[in-house]
Specification:
With about 600 residues, the protein is α/β, with parallel strands linked by helices. It is built from 20 helices and 22 strands. Helix 9 crosses helix 17, helix 12 runs parallel beside helix 14 and helix 14 packs parallel to helix 15. This is Polysaccharide biosynthesis protein.
Length: about 600
């Protein structure tokens, strides 16, 4: 239907309604003598013209009746009342008389007919759409956990879209809601009835609509839901709901991160913003799991310039495109280079002269590095030394190395090289204007080479899941958690600190695998777990501190800090000779570097 035809149709319908309202009011008030006089004719013309002019003024003819709502009804009321008032004034001016009863009854009939026909049309259209939707889509019976504001919004969203999800039941712990209906959907019980309700109503999909739920409570709800229903989704984070961004398209599947039971991290955004805003910041390894997330977090604080360094052209392309969409006033610059190239590193750092540097470029995969010791040394040690020296040369204000719990009492090539990197950073801090520090934390969920992607692939292949040892434990954090805390730690740095992130309690890898099996809708009989034996370089349990590092201070609910004087002055000998040594000799040299360094001295706690 084109606009002109639609407008003519609406004008005609409204004109008929206005004239019928006037006629019925006149007949009702004068049933035995419904004579037509000049006052009635003139009043009808004025009312009709004023009605159409006001409808144009309030844009009522631009609105689609199918989506008529309370705002449109309010506008209609304004039009009717104002047009009646204009007619009344006209009667007083032209006839020195006022037909009060006739005007009042016309107003009532006018409102009833105008609002009624729009709402009736909306009802017909929605019913038609509902029939089409039900006939064309096989919908899944859906249970919504939580009948609060968010749950109600979800039910409306699902009912008005062409979703395959059909909300049939609410569960809520509020006893006042039991046996009531919300948007035509009954609240049949509370959360303790979950298992029985799913079976009784043949529920095929569960939506957890409790965005404020966190930690252990959320874990329990997710685990109970996954035991009785394969398809479980979570509402987006509460801030998305609060800002009006909630929609069905933003529902997300339950992930293993939800089962860690993490409380949301509270950052001191003022301190971070004061350091980051309007600054030039450089991130190495910007295309990797940790580096890219550091960039995503930093961009929120509006740095003047964000320089991305990575040796992978594809990774740089991906993260740059993503950041360009959300950068605000920040200028994004990229440098594709390998940090093993010392001259090139110096050129790039001197070119941009950043205020802060985050060094995330590293090889992190333990078993792979056992067979690639030369690459591990070249990148994790010599590459780090290059970046450290370049930051000193360019007088960078703050430098943060991303380290690992595997650097504590290391037994792997990766761990040893990261420990040497820590000592290089400590050594440079002794004779540089740059404030050097490092942040140490454990495994991050979802990073490249981590257990979660491997387990998911094994489940997709039908199993089994392979774990090296039944007692194997690891510290885990999500990538956003870790990177937020890295940035927060940097804001406290005065140089020479070791920051250690509170990773919570270590998690058994076997338990993690079982949770992932259940999340995927399988049982341990369907996807078995087998143990393959500890691989070279692996430890059963990781550590976050050396024994002499226990005198730390907590400067944030999730960050510990301490200072010590253990360092390496330089790695010249290693750089000149590592390619001339065989693998065993090189590994012995690395062990000697971390065992025959400057002796420990009593730690000096950082003053805050």
């Amino acid at each position: 239907m084109n606009y002109k035809f639609r407008l003519i149709s609406l004008l005609t319908i409204d004109s008929i309604i206005v004239l019928i309202s006037i006629f019925l009011a006149h007949v009702f008030l004068n049933p035995f003598n419904p004579t037509v006089d000049l006052m009635l004719v003139l009043s009808s013309i004025i009312l009709l013209i004023s009605h159409h002019i006001l409808c144009f003024y309030f844009h009522l003819y631009q609105r689609i009746w199918k989506y008529a709502n309370i705002d449109e009804l309010i506008s209609l009321c304004k039009v009717v009342i104002l047009s009646i008032l204009i007619t009344a004034v006209s009667q007083l001016i032209f006839f020195n008389d006022l037909y009060e009863r006739g005007l009042f009854l016309t107003l009532i009939l006018h409102l009833v007919f105008l609002c009624g026909i729009r709402l009736f049309w909306r009802y017909i259209q929605l019913r038609r759409d509902d029939v089409i939707r039900k006939s064309s889509i096989k919908r899944k019976a859906t249970l919504i956990l939580g009948a609060g504001v968010s749950g109600r919004s979800i039910s409306v969203e699902l009912q008005k879209t062409y979703s395959v999800l059909n909300p049939v039941i609410f569960l809520d712990d509020n006893p006042k809601l039991k046996n009531l209906e919300i948007n035509g959907i009954p609240v049949v019980g509370n959360l303790k009835d979950l298992e029985a309700i799913v079976e009784h109503y043949n529920i095929k999909h569960i939506i957890i609509a409790m965005p404020s739920l966190r930690g252990e409570q959320l874990q329990q709800i997710i685990q109970r839901s996954k035991r009785v229903c394969k398809d479980v989704q979570l509402l987006p984070k509460y801030r998305e709901f609060a800002t009006g961004e909630l929609s069905y398209s933003k529902f997300r599947d339950v992930s293993i991160e939800d089962l860690l039971g993490r409380e949301p991290i509270k950052l001191n955004n003022e301190i971070i913003s004061a350091q980051v805003k309007d600054s030039i910041i450089l991130v190495t390894g910007a295309g990797g799991s940790i580096g890219s997330e550091i960039c995503r977090q930093l961009i929120k604080y509006n740095p003047k310039e964000l320089v991305l360094i990575d040796h992978s052209e594809f990774n740089i392309f991906q993260i740059r495109n993503e950041l360009e969409r959300i950068k605000g006033s920040t200028v994004i610059k990229t440098e594709i280079l390998n940090i093993e190239n010392r001259k090139r590193v110096f050129m790039v750092v001197e070119k941009h002269k950043p205020k802060m540097m985050f060094h995330a470029a590293a090889y992190k995969h333990v078993p792979l590095m056992e067979g690639n010791i030369y690459s591990a040394v070249a990148t994790n040690i010599l590459g780090t030394n290059n970046v450290v020296d370049a930051s000193h040369n360019a007088e960078v204000e703050n430098f943060i190395l991303i380290s690992s719990d595997k650097a504590v009492n290391p037994e792997s090539v990766m761990g040893i090289t990261k420990r040497v990197a820590e000592l290089i950073v400590n050594g440079k801090n002794r004779n540089s204007k740059t404030k050097y520090a490092f942040v140490r934390f454990g495994n991050v969920l979802g990073s490249s080479g981590s257990v979660i992607p491997i387990f998911k692939q094994q489940i997709q292949n039908g199993g089994p899941i392979t774990i090296t040892h039944p007692d194997m434990t690891r510290y885990f954090m999500t990538i956003p958690e870790a990177t937020q805390l890295v940035i927060q730690a940097t804001s406290y740095s005065n140089g020479g600190e070791t920051f250690v992130l509170d990773m919570g309690e270590p998690v058994k890898i076997t338990d993690l695998a079982k949770k992932l099996i259940h999340l995927s809708g399988f049982t341990e009989e369907e996807i078995p777990i087998i143990y393959t034996g500890v691989r070279p370089g692996e430890k059963i349990h990781e550590e976050l501190f050396y024994k002499n590092e226990q005198h730390y201070k907590q400067i944030h609910s999730k960050i510990f800090v301490f200072n010590n004087n253990q360092y390496l002055q330089n790695v010249d000998y290693l750089q000149e000779n590592y390619l001339f040594l065989n693998e065993s000799e090189l590994q012995e040299l690395l062990k000697k570097l971390i065992n025959e360094k400057t002796q420990y001295t009593p730690e000096r706690l950082i003053q805050t």
